[in-house]
RNA sequence: GUGGACGUAGCUCAGCUGGUAGAGCACCCGGUUGUGGUCCGGGAUGUCGCGGGUUCGAGCCCCGUCGUUCACCCCA
């Protein structure tokens, strides 16, 4: 292995020019609607006490049981790289008493998350998510607003080939009533060992089986939606009503299964049509018991997480994201040492006035520098040589038209 | 974690039944002294992912390993 090249760890996503600009654009677009809705940034560590995820996300989930990056730090503590965002936010809210003031607490976050899965199209071991959490309000209107915020982010990017799937997981009483009947139904099925094991961990999982015979077998299984308590049912209906009013279209999917244990009530998922097997571009829901489970007060909450990597893939698949070039307003080509110093000063001044300015360093020669100017896509170019230094006047060349005009250096900013 | 495909210059790839590597794009220089995008000429570039094996000889065959990719599982 001595000669093995060092390369990035397996399954990570990386972005560099020019694609990094698209990534940046997607990330910023997805979070913009949340900022406009009064959500505020919460910046958290990417690693947490392992117990946080065990208790928050749930031992029975795949995420916790086999996908976490867990290690022992030098003090012998068990640390885990965050596999999702909500648990960490709840921890911080409880720890710092953010829930002691006015409710709801409205937060947004953005950053890397980690899951030790086998990489695949749109599935990475380190991936990027933006998300929001609204804590301490049961009003169905906030459910609708949260969902509409996610939808607005997708729409602002020009996405259209996706759908919003909705369901309600109801409250505890709804779920336990359903569970009895579902288990009873499943016991009547002839399952192979792996499937039986999945059913044992979480019977709802069987709704998600991709095999045709299983889909058929589950056709008559009792649906949780039919077991909702009147409160849950009422709440969900109102959410749907608000979404209608907001013109956010959705399809009901009573067979939807989510991978995290904390979800209750309103639950949703955004699925893109042009992606491969990993087609979920975002998802979320209510988690009315999570806060208390983690030792906080009994506050409800709702939030979502959106996969920036996948949304970028989706935007590219739809062809709606443009490589609008990073363009400088001015590209300066200095000829000689004195000119270089002058270039530095001019650039500094113009940047101070908000202009994007680049300088051709390195004494490349005029022709080479002009080529460089062309490649950066700068809108204007000036050459700084002896005559310009003495006259303090330059020929400001507009690169698109090829025409140039004589301009005083002091008034350059007016022409950019 | 399971299974399939793949791994050759910065990028996309070619390389016939094994005889020690090529193209296009990109990049650099130049086409008479200070103005780009087209065109023309010239140039640099790879331990053919890594390790081992078979062979007189392997980019081409075999094994292992690392990685990529697609699917399962699961999810953003």
Give the C-level CATH assignment of the largest domain.
Alpha Beta
Residues in β-strands, percent: 15-25%
CATH topology of the largest domain: BirA Bifunctional Protein, domain 2
Strand/helix succession? HEEHHEEHEEHEHHHHEEEHEHEHEHEHEE
Give the CA-CA distance, first to last residue: 54 Å
Number of helices: 14
CATH architecture descriptor of the largest domain: 2-Layer Sandwich
Let me know the CATH homologous superfamily of the largest domain.
Bira Bifunctional Protein, Domain 2
Description of the molecule:
The structure is a single chain. The chain has helices spanning 19-36, 50-56, 62-66, 86-95, 140-156, 172-187, 193-201, 212-218, 230-245, 290-293, 308-318, 337-352, 366-376, 386-391, and strands at residues 40-41, 47-49, 69-72, 78-81, 105-114, 126-135, 162-168, 251-252, 264-272, 280-286, 301-307, 330-334, 357-359, 380-384, 393-398, 404-408. It has 14 helices and 16 strands. With 416 residues, it is of the alpha+beta class. It has two domains: 19-171 and 229-318, 2-Layer Sandwich (BirA Bifunctional Protein, domain 2); 330-415, Anticodon-binding domain (Rossmann fold, 3-Layer(aba) Sandwich). The strands form three sheets. It has an eight-stranded mixed sheet. A five-stranded mixed sheet has the order 13-12-14-15-16, with helices on both faces. α12 (337-352) links the parallel β12 and β13. The two termini are 54 Å apart. The model has no long low-confidence stretch (mean pLDDT 91). α1 (19-36) runs antiparallel to α5 (140-156) and α1 (19-36) crosses α11. The longest helix has 18 residues, at 19-36. It binds one RNA strand of 76 nucleotides through α3, β6, β10, β11 and α11. It catalyses: tRNA(His) + L-histidine + ATP = L-histidyl-tRNA(His) + AMP + diphosphate + H(+). One of its GO terms (molecular function) is histidine-tRNA ligase activity. This is histidine--tRNA ligase. Pfam families: HGTP_anticodon, tRNA-synt_His. Its EC number is 6.1.1.21.
């Amino acid at each position: 292995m001595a000669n093995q090249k060092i390369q990035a760890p397996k399954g990570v996503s990386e972005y560099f020019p020019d694609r990094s600009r698209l990534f940046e654009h997607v990330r910023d677009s997805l979070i913009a609607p949340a900022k406009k809705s009064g959500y505020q940034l919460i910046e958290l560590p990417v690693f947490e006490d392992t117990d946080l995820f065990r208790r928050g996300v749930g031992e029975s989930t795949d995420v916790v049981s086999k996908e976490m990056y867990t290690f022992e730090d030098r003090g012998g503590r068990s640390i885990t790289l965050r596999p999702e965002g909500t648990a960490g936010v709840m921890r911080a809210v409880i720890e710092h008493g953010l829930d002691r003031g006015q409710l709801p607490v409205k937060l947004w976050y953005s950053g890397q998350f980690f899951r030790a899965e086998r990489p695949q199209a749109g599935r990475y071991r380190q991936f990027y998510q933006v998300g929001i959490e609204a804590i301490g309000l049961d009003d169905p209107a906030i459910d609708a607003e949260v969902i509409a915020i996610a939808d607005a982010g997708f729409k602002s990017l020009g996405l259209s080939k996706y759908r919003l799937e909705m369901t309600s997981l109801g409250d505890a009483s709804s779920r336990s009533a359903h569970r009895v009947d579902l288990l009873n139904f499943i016991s009547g099925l002839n399952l192979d060992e792996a499937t039986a094991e999945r059913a044992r961990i979480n019977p709802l999982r069987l709704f998600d089986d991709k095999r045709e015979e299983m889909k058929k077998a589950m056709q008559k299984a009792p649906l949780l939606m039919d077991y909702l308590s009147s409160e849950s049912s009422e709440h969900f209906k109102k959410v749907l009503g608000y979404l209608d009013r907001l013109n956010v279209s959705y399809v009901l999917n009573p067979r939807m299964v989510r991978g995290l244990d904390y979800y209750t009530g309103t639950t949703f998922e955004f699925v893109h049509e042009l992606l491969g097997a990993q087609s979920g571009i975002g998802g979320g829901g209510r988690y009315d018991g999570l806060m208390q489970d983690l030792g906080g007060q009994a506050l409800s909450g709702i939030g979502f997480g959106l996969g920036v990597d996948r949304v970028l893939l989706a935007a590219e698949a739809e062809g709606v994201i443009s490589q609008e070039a990073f363009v400088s307003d001015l590209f300066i080509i200095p000829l000689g040492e004195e000119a270089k110093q002058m270039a530095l000063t001019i650039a500094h001044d113009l940047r101070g006035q908000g202009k994007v300015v680049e300088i051709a360093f390195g004494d490349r020669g005029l022709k080479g520098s002009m080529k460089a100017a062309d490649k950066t896509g700068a809108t204007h170019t000036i050459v700084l040589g002896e005559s310009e230094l003495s006259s303090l006047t330059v020929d400001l060349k507009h690169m698109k038209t090829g025409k140039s005009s004589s301009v005083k250096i002091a008034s350059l900013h007016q022409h950019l």
